[in-house]
Design goal:
disordered N terminus; Cathepsin B, Chain A; alpha+beta; seven-stranded antiparallel beta sheet
Length: 272
């Protein structure tokens, strides 16, 4: 039987998570005197087989999940990718802010520091990938891993073709149950029943009874945060990249680097 303390903690989690789900699913449009032909409702329907987070079943899966330590820190720093090519950038920004890694200046925020999609890539990361290169072709999973490492966090890169569903399920759910541990996935949109090529987003939680992972989709204008079965997600990660590459997509296991005080600071500060 659960103790009263654990019941209180569980209740607080449900209330906080419910608020986050409502905020993530909300879309606000300014009121006008009449319809504006330039305005249209966003299309954010989950593909068949996926369960939208803000649907009753999706919310229930979150409330019942136990591996959800990543959810609230990531939702607190949720990013909608600012262009079709910025899914990797938005995912990195969410994770670095969730980890509390010291950030470079952000022009819009005065003396306050926060990672944004505009300040993430700079002279510290230019040898990995430039902003112009991202705009042309997006980021590979290896690019995402290397940029995260440049800011001092520990990253393990796993290609699905060299892994297995069982390994992915075990290690990803373990990470999602631990504070300051995050998982980013790179998968085929078409293999997930969605429109478009490859995509990158962080995972927010795992629910064991349904064997589903919560994808916090950074293309919020296009697809909602949604639950996908472990098998379907792994199959989408195992989809081969376009020739001549022989690699598949995969996933990243991210944590604060060992030996860093409090697990909150990078090995070297970003440029100022």
């Amino acid at each position: 039987m659960e103790s009263s303390t654990s019941n209180v903690g569980r209740g607080a989690w449900i209330v906080t998570a419910a608020t986050a789900v409502a905020l993530l699913g909300s879309v606000t449009v300014a009121s006008r005197d009449g319809p504006d032909p330039d305005l249209a409702s966003p299309t954010r329907t989950a593909s068949p087989g996926l369960v939208s987070l803000d649907a009753p079943q999706g919310s229930r899966l979150l409330f019942e999940s136990e591996a959800h330590a990543a959810f609230l820190p990531l939702i607190s720093h949720f990013e909608t990718q600012k262009s079709l090519a910025h899914c990797g950038v938005a995912s990195i920004v969410m994770v670095l802010n969730a980890l509390g890694v010291p950030a470079p200046p952000a022009d819009s925020y005065g003396s306050y520091r926060l990672f944004t999609q505009d300040n993430l890539l700079n002279e510290l990361t230019d040898q990995i990938i430039t902003g112009d290169a991202v705009a042309r072709r997006g980021m590979s999973l290896a690019d995402v891993a290397d940029v995260l490492r440049a800011y001092g966090v520990s990253v393990d890169l796993h290609y699905a073709g060299a892994s297995s569903l069982e390994t992915f399920r075990t290690v990803a759910s373990n990470y999602l149950s631990r504070p300051d541990h995050y998982v980013i996935v790179n998968y085929s949109r078409s293999a997930m029943g969605q429109e478009g090529p490859g995509h990158i987003s962080p995972l927010g939680a795992y629910e064991a009874d349904s064997d589903r992972f919560l994808i916090l989709d950074v293309s919020r204008y296009k697809a909602p945060a949604a639950w996908a079965s472990a098998e379907r997600l792994f199959t989408a990660m195992a989809d081969p990249l376009a020739p001549p590459s022989t690699r598949t997509r995969g996933f990243l296991l991210i944590r604060a680097a060992s030996g860093i005080d409090g697990g909150r600071a990078p090995a070297s500060a970003p440029p100022t």
